[in-house]
Design a protein that fits this description.
Blueprint (H helix, E strand, L loop, with lengths): L1 H12 L4 E5 L18 H4 L5 H6 L1 H18 L6 H11 L5 E4 L5 H5 L6 E3 L2 E8 L5 E2 L1 H9 L13 E5 L8 H12 L3 E5 L11 H7 L3 E5 L12 E3 L3 H16 L5
Parallel strand pairs: 1-2, 1-7, 2-3, 7-8, 8-9
Antiparallel strand pairs: 4-5, 4-6
Helix pairs in contact: 1-10, 5-10, 8-9
């Protein structure tokens, strides 16, 4: 693994445009369960589809009941060493942007500037009205749910919903377009903790590779892009990204080759 870590650090140090693409696997070390593994969210719950949410109060109540369980863990979750390594690489100018499938807000919490983050699936720490599009403070909605409001609504009468993309809901066009542009224009593309099974997010490493970028994958399980990547490491995100940052930092400080 050390040789592969060194190769990733070397490509980052070459400069150019570097993109980090993250999935649920970067946040599991923060205690946030992923979606597909045994015991994960999709293993325990059938997803509430967007049309169900919009057409049925019972579905909205079930959606919010699940959100309470998820957000209870998110309130205490903190960025882990993988998030910290990405933030440090951004801070020293070697990562241009982070494209993420995650909705936990931990990249922002780790110190990555919001304008460098592309959230393909939204952010569950934001609550938005589906009618007037106003953003409502999450803690206000948390308090309302705790007080017995099982399906909170906006002052305008619209349904409130976490600002995430549900099954059957349209992807955010601006974020997808930006992710595609960044992927096609980069020189180095690093996938961290994603199975690359969900579209259109799964297309981003293909756009990068087809445009000539160096493609590296860090994931504990196989991905559809394993046969086309330049480096693949099957290890935890925290272990690998910390080692990559240490290699980069050592070189910049004259302690590495």
């Amino acid at each position: 693994m050390e040789r592969k870590v060194a190769k990733i650090a070397e490509k980052i140090l070459e400069g150019g445009k570097s993109i980090v693409f993250t999935g649920a696997g970067i946040s599991t070390e923060s205690g946030i369960p992923d979606y597909r593994s045994q015991g994960g969210i999709w293993d325990r719950f059938r997803p509430v589809y967007f049309n169900e949410f919009m057409s049925s109060r019972k579905s909205r109540e079930e959606y919010w009941r699940r959100w309470l369980e998820l957000y209870r863990g998110l309130r205490t979750a903190a960025p882990n060493r993988a998030h910290a390594a990405v933030a440090k690489l951004c801070d020293i100018g070697f990562v241009n942007a982070v494209i993420t499938q995650n909705v936990d807000g931990l990249h922002q919490a780790s110190g990555v500037a919001a304008d460098r983050i592309v959230e393909l699936h939204g952010n569950t720490r934001r609550i938005r009205c589906m009618h007037c599009r106003q953003v409502i403070p999450t803690e206000e909605v948390w308090d309302r749910l705790g007080g017995g409001d099982t399906a909170p609504e906006c002052n305008c009468g619209g349904y409130l919903k976490p600002d995430t993309i549900s099954f059957g809901q349209a992807m955010p066009a601006a974020e997808v377009d930006r992710a595609v542009t960044l992927s096609r224009g980069c020189d180095f593309f690093l996938v961290v903790g994603s199975t690359l099974l969900v579209q259109p997010a799964s297309h981003m490493p293909l756009y990068a590779k087809n445009s000539g970028a160096f493609l590296a994958i860090v994931n504990l399980s196989e991905t559809p892009c394993d046969d086309i990547c330049d480096v693949r490491i099957e290890a935890s995100a925290g272990e690998v990204l910390s080692a990559v940052y240490e290699k980069v930092d050592a070189f910049l400080n004259g302690k590495g080759k």
